[in-house]
Each structure stands twice: as structure tokens, then as C-alpha cells.
């Protein structure tokens, strides 16, 4: 089977799809831990912004500005570089910034910028996981496997909310960020060593039954007729073509409105920061 994602193929046997499922489950845990741990640590931080509810909400919410802006670029990067590399970057970036958080916690503008950057990088996680699932999941397993993988997010929230207070109470609030970053770092090592972009047997063959299971759900390609003037005229005169054009135009307008809204939110954020300084 030809790889459907970009990126270099590993010079080793392709892993089992069940291993990929487990690693993708761990990816959600590894990204939710650094996202949530600040919600616990902020209660004991000795910083002026942490004692002000408005500033605290600004820092915690800044993550989602970057998260919303990074979804579409993440999808494009997956097609360009492959799900393995993009997901490795997303998890590694998020946990690296988590480890650096104690260095910037005293500054409100620095914390807002750090959280926006964390959200922008972590936004690549979702499109990368979807891209990996599109290659590794046979149709018969798609519902159960997707549910299992997506449950890693809530599990990460529960783990962060349970263990972060214990770590803060016994080792200080800085240790909670280092611990979440250590979990993410361990995941990155496993993902880099074990994962591949597609289930291609190279050079040692994957179990034949598993390859056939994945291939059996592929649809055979339909022959493409030559593009002649008659075919082009038939396409352009069809109602389906004009309906699709109207939908594309609506999507472009919605995307433009979304970009304008994001620019407005960033402008408001900048004005708010300037008023606090």
C-alpha cells in the first residue's frame, strides 16, 4: 500500500496498528497534561497576575487563541511533512513550553505570549491524529478505535487534576510543570522510535493478515475520463457544479469572518495588555 501521508518511511518493520492506537491515546494525555496543570498551579503562584481574577482568566484563556488559529496550518503541515513528524512536534513543543513556564511566571505579558504559543503548537495534535487514523484504521474498527484514542484527552485532564495538587503540595508548584513535561518527553521518545506514517512493510514484512485487513477497506480507483471541451462544458453547466461553487464561496466567507474575528480578539488582547502595563 502506498503511503497516504508525507514524510520519510522508516527503515524498519512497520508497527502494529494497535501499537499506533495506544501511542495516539498517549498523545492526547501528553498534550492535556501541560494544558491543564496551570489551572492547579495558578492557585499557589506568587505573582501579581495570579491574584487577580481577570488576569488569571486572561492567561488561562490565551491558550485557546493560539489553539484556534493553529488548526488549519496543522492540517496543511500533515499533508506536507506527514502525521508522525507533525504530531512529534506538537507534543514536544507543548511540553517544552510547559517546562519553561516557571521561568516566565512572574510576567503577565510573557505568560500570555507563552500560552498563545503553546496553544498554536498543540493545535497541530488534532489534525495529525486524524491524519494518522485515516491511514491506520480499517473501517471495521474505526468507531471503537476513535473512541478509545479520543478518551485520552479526558484521561489527561483527570490525571492532571489529581496528581498536580499532590506534586505541588510535596515538591512545589514548579515540579508540576516539570513532571508533565517529563511525561510528554517520554511519549516523544516512544513515538519517534516506534511510529511510522503508514503501515508499509519495509524491509521486514508486517503480518500478512494485518496488511490485508487494511487493504480490504480501500476502494478501487475509478478510471478518470479525458478532460475534453465537451466534458468541461457538461461540468460547468451542471447544477451540482454551481451548488458546489456556492458552498465554496460560503466557506470562504466564513473563513474570512473567522480571520477578522481572530484579528479583533488579538487587537483587544493587545489593548488590554497595554492598559495593564
Q: What does it look like?
A:
This protein is mainly alpha-helical and 277 residues long. It has twelve helices and no strands. The protein has helices spanning 17-41, 53-69, 71-81, 83-104, 108-122, 125-136, 142-150, 152-171, 173-194, 208-215, 229-236, 239-276. α1 (17-41) runs parallel beside α7. The protein is flat. The model is unreliable at 1-14 (pLDDT under 50).
Summarize it.
The chain is mostly helical. It has 12 helices and no strands.
Question: Features of this protein?
Answer:
277 residues, mainly alpha, 75% helix, 0% strand, disordered N terminus
Low-confidence segments: 1-14
> What is the percent of helical residues?
over 70%
* SS class: mainly alpha
Count of DSSP-assigned helices: 12
Radius of gyration: 23 Å
Largest sheet: none
Mean of residue pLDDT?
81
Beta strand %: under 5%
Shape category:
flat
Total strands: 0
Cα-to-Cα separation, first versus last residue: 57 Å
Order of helices and strands: HHHHHHHHHHHH
Amino acid at each position: 500500500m502506498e503511503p497516504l501521508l508525507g514524510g520519510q518511511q522508516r527503515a524498519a518493520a512497520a508497527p502494529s496498528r494497535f501499537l499506533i492506537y495506544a501511542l495516539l491515546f498517549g498523545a492526547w494525555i501528553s498534550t492535556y497534561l501541560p494544558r491543564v496543570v496551570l489551572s492547579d498551579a495558578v492557585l499557589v503562584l506568587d505573582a501579581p497576575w495570579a491574584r487577580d481574577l481577570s488576569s488569571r482568566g486572561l492567561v488561562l484563556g490565551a491558550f485557546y487563541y493560539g489553539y484556534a488559529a493553529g488548526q488549519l496550518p496543522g492540517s496543511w503541515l500533515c499533508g506536507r511533512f506527514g502525521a508522525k513528524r507533525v504530531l512529534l512536534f506538537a507534543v514536544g513543543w507543548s511540553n517544552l513550553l510547559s517546562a519553561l513556564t516557571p521561568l516566565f511566571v512572574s510576567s503577565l505579558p510573557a505568560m500570555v505570549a507563552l500560552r498563545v504559543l503553546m496553544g498554536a503548537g498543540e493545535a497541530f495534535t488534532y489534525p495529525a491524529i486524524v491524519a494518522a487514523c485515516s491511514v491506520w484504521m480499517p473501517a471495521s474498527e474505526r468507531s471503537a478505535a476513535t473512541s478509545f484514542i479520543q478518551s485520552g484527552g479526558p484521561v489527561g485532564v483527570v490525571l492532571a487534576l489529581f496528581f498536580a495538587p499532590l506534586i505541588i503540595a510535596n515538591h512545589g508548584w514548579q515540579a508540576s510543570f516539570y513532571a508533565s513535561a517529563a511525561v510528554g518527553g517520554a511519549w516523544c521518545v516512544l513515538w519517534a522510535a516506534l511510529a511510522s506514517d503508514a503501515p508499509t512493510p519495509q524491509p521486514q514484512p508486517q503480518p500478512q493478515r494485518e496488511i490485508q485487513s487494511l487493504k480490504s477497506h480501500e476502494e478501487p480507483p475509478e478510471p478518470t475520463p479525458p478532460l475534453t471541451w465537451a466534458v468541461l462544458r457538461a461540468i460547468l453547466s451542471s447544477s451540482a457544479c454551481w451548488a458546489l461553487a456556492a458552498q465554496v464561496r460560503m466557506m470562504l466567507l466564513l473563513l474570512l469572518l473567522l480571520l477578522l474575528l481572530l484579528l479583533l480578539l488579538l487587537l483587544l488582547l493587545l489593548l488590554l495588555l497595554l492598559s495593564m502595563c
